[in-house]
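Section handout 9: paired folding examples.
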Amino acid sequence: MQRTWTPRVATALAVLAAAAFIYVTAEIMPVGALPAIARDLHVSEAVVGTLLASYALVAAVATMPLVRWTAAWPRRRTLLWTLACLSVSQLISALAPSFEVLAVGRVLCALTHGLMWSVIAPIGVRLVPPSHAGRATMAVYVGTGLALVVGSPLTAAMSELWGWRLAVGAITVASVVVLVAARFALPVMTMTDAVDGVRPRPIGHHRNRPLVVLSVLTLVGVTAHFISYTFIVVILRDVVGVHGAHLAWLLAAYGVAGLTGMAVLARPGDRRPKTAVLGCLAGSSLAFAVLATLGYLSWHTVAVAAVGAVAIVGWGATANAMPPMLQAAAMRHSPEDPDGASGLYVACFQVGIMAGSLTGGLLYQHAGVPAMLSASAGLMLAALACVMISRGLFAVRPATSEK
């Protein structure tokens, strides 16, 4: 029976988007609260920046084993388990007396982060007809955009006004609310093989050449993005020249641009994904190049602030519209096991976050912000060139799903 966009499906997709929102808000919370955490725990800003790298490392290592271990679980149970881990981890982080305990709390969240992203998009795809797979994935990723529009600026503002612990406490409460909503709004989604009493046989995704190439290119692009994004507050302050409360507004504009980009590219992402991804890569490359130029010029004028703000918005629009299209493409390359394909994609995404945040930290400490932005521009251009000459990476084929 063909599934349609019923109110029940829309509600389920909204809950999935809420789960994405709360997970991404928790993941990137140190970006906006970086100065506040550094002051409170008496460590440097660069050390706080390693929270993203360590988080991504744990997520990258844990994703594929957990995807295989939970392969026979109903999809709802898997998602609820990840949300429960998120709630506990945020409680530990909010009460952390030291940087080390904070890092441990984030490890628990990171352990299930990749698993959550491995199942959340496939759950969304299974709720709709195959022809709407890209749009369902994009709907789930709206949560990511909202995390950038609302979550990150809000936690940054709360951290500055009332302390970062209150911000993490708010994330804890929100994650429990989403956990309860997911329990009642989502179908069980028992896996077909599990119903038949057969444990799903692992599929060799490492031998799926298009999927591997797509995942590696994702790694390169994500590395380029996070080299600079890890220190976006520093870029806004030192390059664009925005200070104080205006930082939160520009961070929100970055997120709004990301949401707008996802909405504009929802349909093209289903019909002409390669063209859409190429446009995003070109836009991000240009934004990084402009910001790097402003950084080297080191001019602090109203005109520079305006140009920098436009570049930040362009960066947000293009960088945040890409992940749903890339994950949808990954699942199309393995219609018989979209969760496993999604897991490989997510693992490479997390490696990119780790590599980007570590590289960004080293460049920030030893070469400066302009060099950091230049590295992002160079890597993004390399990804653009590879996608441009590729064949078959974004072929649109109908995807199947478990009922």
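Moving on to protein 2 of 2.
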Amino acid sequence: MEDTIVPLLFNSYLYLPKDPHIRDGFMEILPGMFSNTQPGSYLHTSTLAVAFFTVAAWTGQAPLLRASERYFTKALPKIRDALRTNDDSEFDNILVSILLLSTYEEFVAIKDWEMPLKAHLRGAIALINEKRTKRMDSQSSTIYDAVESQIIKTTRGLDNPMVPTPQVWPLSQTASMPPSPRALLSSAASELVNLRSAWERMMSQPAMEEEATTILGKANELDIKLISWSYQVPPHWMPVAATIIPQCVRNAGIWHNRCDCYSSMCIAATWNTFRDCRLVLQTIMLSCLRILYLQDPGCRRVTAIQDTIRGIADDICATVPFFLGSQSESIRMKYGLVEYPYAETRPVTLTHKQSAPLIGAWHMFGYLRNLQSADLNLPGAQQVWLKEQMERILVIYFQK
């Protein structure tokens, strides 16, 4: 069974066309690490936990879900034993295993409609703090980038509790990297982590105008930096409005008759990360302006920010048909059953038809959940639509 399940996971993403501007993540290096590990090891069982859960979600087979739980339970004591040995040569394998268990934790949270506790991400941060002096190579750098991305992800959701940042932040060495859209966005997003931490500290105590002024200024600067990013992406990264939207896609869910098409899901997800970051910044600016209300007579800036929030939310909603198409249930591993919107200059690729039914909903879930934050104050009709799309994803993966 393992020999069938694990390749299904790896093949779902490993052979997708790669954009030269997007770096590999830890899942791209996992197949090589998995092939070199011993059966029954902590990396082996952690991989099986994620693989079996993923394929269970795709196929709706409950026995696979139960098997994933067993592998997860087996992996935990094995990782604890490895940590006690304190062997630096095992550092990468241990950190990837912890990241896999963190991924499993997120899967279970989606299934149970709960916020993930991020216990394993916190464990990864603690391990990095302990082993920071370890010599870095390409593999270790990729793993550190993955941890940083997970930390940034917790910052983007307004309802997500933040996790402590590592003692050295950011983890990735973006200054030494060649400029790329993903590196520039990662740099800005890592600044957002620090800013949100400062904002939360301010909001936990009596309001201070001087502190609110400082945070408002930093949020404005970072928002300008993010906006400039959107003008520096390659032409093929730009979204294109769909000109053909099949009726079945409309029936499944489309907000205000709008859909944008992208060259790949990774590029679309990167745009949604950019939008998520801007939503957090708008919320920070709003809260500061409410403290500094005398500086905004007539609430013109507040109104402008609220309009920006709604525009960004609409942009994220416009990616739902691209990711989900007409899908409304598990595909049972059969391709060609889902239709997608497209434009003449941005047709639906065979790769998208094959991979989007498997991982499109997974890409979309976090962004939709973040839009449901009460702090955004989105229109009631949009909140209802978002809830419907969240429920749709649960049906796709868990037949709920």
